[in-house]
Amino acid sequence: MASISSRTSLVLDLPPSCIEFVPGHRDLFVVGTYHLERQEGEEVVKEEENGGAQQRSGSLVLFRLAEDEVTKLQTLPTPSAIFDLHFAPPTHSSTPLLGACTSTGTLALYHITSSPPSITHLRTLQLFPPTSLITYFSWHPTIPHLIGATLSDGSTHLCNTSPSSPSATEQATDTDTDTDQTALTVPLHSHDLEAWVLSFIPNPTSTGLLTGGDDSVLKYRRLPAPLFPSPAKITTSSSSSSTASTYLTTVLLHNDDAPSPTTFWSDRRTHTAGVTAILPLPGNLVVTGSYDDRMRLLALPVGALRTPTVLAECDLGGGVWRLKDMTASPNEHGDGSADVDVEGERNEFVLLASCMHAGTRVVRLARSADRASWGFEVLARFEEHASMNYGSDVQDVEEGGEGQARTVVSTSFYDRLLCVWRWVG
Fold first, then answer.
1. Distance, CA of 367 to CA of 349 (rounded, Å)
2. Three-state helix/strand/coil letters over the chain
3. Which of 107, 301, 399, 415 is found 20 to 30 A from 61 (Cα to Cα)?
4. What are the two backbone dihedrals, phi and then psi, of residue 47, each rounded to the nearest 5 degrees?
5. pLDDT one-digit tens code per residue, 352-407
6. Closest alpha carbon to 73 in 58, 61, 87
7. How far are the Cα atoms of 36, 208, 293, 333, 349 from residue 297, in angstroms, in the given order?
8. Segment 199-203 mean pLDDT
């Protein structure tokens, strides 16, 4: 296992909580920050236990990464702390659409413009009461404007983020408070403690929602099939808005249906601490991360089974807060023969894990030659962070850059450190 050193590093103005590269702009990335206006104390993910009375603020910071040089292009202060951010799938918007969830129950939406690069605020939705902390959200893979969200009170929801009027879509302001709107939300299941993460799990006939919480429980709920199989069938913003709203109405109508093993299950045995990361893979597989320092490969149950099967697990030395698939696509490996078998299934994945106090890990997940088993192997570790590593992301491979090193940007919370490093596979 290689130990990697940073190429460059810098100290941010506020503690970083999340990071993502901008889709289609491999040189740009955004960092969300989370500042609790109190004395130093417990880590960010436990602060809501004090009743939500503390004042939190944050910012979105746009950076450019060129070779090993990091340039700050813009800092956009936010009145609430940023807990999580994600870009919508490229099919959902003609320009990069960024969502950021906050410590006061809001989801703020932004566009990233490229000439010059800047963050432009679109609107802020008051999805939940201001005392609610949104811990995580995920865009629906095919329905624009639709997200799933988890809250610090343990609840999980589907939310329609479409504008209430066409004018709201076009309005851009410098603050997060001028265009607050209330959006339609539909409650789903709840965890006994904080809900930390969720992921949409596509399958041929419907979409499922998988959630993890501080209660060490993994929960699955099957959702109704989308009204449209692809965003390509949605041609206008008004029709996509209507689709999200109508879909939520369908989900609401099914909320009182009696659960069955194929529509809902709850697993309390697999994880020995809170479930904090969920990464879906092809073939009914998911990788999970937990406060128990382990990442696990699970085969989701099918038919009447109600418990996932653990296919592999690995102790990473720290709580696994975030997971990202950094596997190069087949054309980036030439013919792709190393990781795709004759049936077109991937035999190998390379994963990036943000491991809280242990730093960052690059991990290989590979299937055996006889296809009978899977195993994890830690390929590299980055341990220059002196505090909690909550956010890391990997830069896209440059077009035509087969076999090149992968550039990673990782962050840590209390020391406000941002590091750039490279891993050579």
1. 9
2. CEEECCCEEEECCCCEEEEEEECCEEEEEEEEEEEECCCCCCCHHHHHHHCCCCCEEEEEEEEEEECCEEEEEEEEEECCCEEEEEECCHHHCCCCEEEEEECCCEEEEEEEEECCEEEEEEEEEECCCCCCCEEEEEECCCCCCEEEEEECCCEEEEEECCCCCHHHHHCCECCCCCCCECCCEEEEEECCCCEEEEEEEECCCCEEEEEEECCCCEEEEEECCCCCCCHHHCCCHHHHHHHHHHHHHHHHHCCCCCCCCCCEEEECCCCCCCEEEEEEECCCEEEEEECCCEEEEEECCCCCCCCCEEEEEEECCCCCCEEEECCCCHHHHCCCCCCECCCCCECEEEEEEECECCCEEEEEEEECCCCCCEEEEEEEEECCCCCCECCEEECCCCCCCCCCCEEEEEEECCCCEEEEEEECC
3. 399
4. -70, -25
5. 999 999 999 999 999 999 999 999 999 999 999 999 999 999 999 887 666 678 99
6. 61
7. 35, 18, 14, 24, 11
8. 89
Give the C-alpha separation, 409 to 10, whole Å: 11
Distance CA 141, CA 89 (A): 7
pLDDT of residue 184: 79
Q: Do residues 150 and 58 touch, judged by C-beta distance below 8 A?
A: no
Q: What is the pLDDT of residues 122-165, one digit of tens each?
A: 999 999 999 999 999 999 998 999 999 999 999 999 999 987 63
Which two tokens mark 163? 């504008």
Token representation of residue 365:
């997940």
Q: What domains, with CATH codes, occur in the chain?
A: 12-278+310-316+385-423 (2.130.10)
pLDDT at 269 over 70: yes
Mean pLDDT rounded to a whole number for the chain: 85
Let me know: does 137 contact 86? Beta carbons within 8 Å. Answer: yes
Strand order in the sheet with 406-412: 8-11, 417-423, 406-412, 392-394
* The two structure tokens encoding residue 2: 């290689």
User: Which two structure tokens, joined as six digits, stand for 349?
Assistant: 């994945």
Instruction: Please tell me the distance from the alpha carbon of residue 392 to that of residue 352, in angstroms, as a whole number.
Output: 8
Percent with pLDDT over 90 in the chain = 66
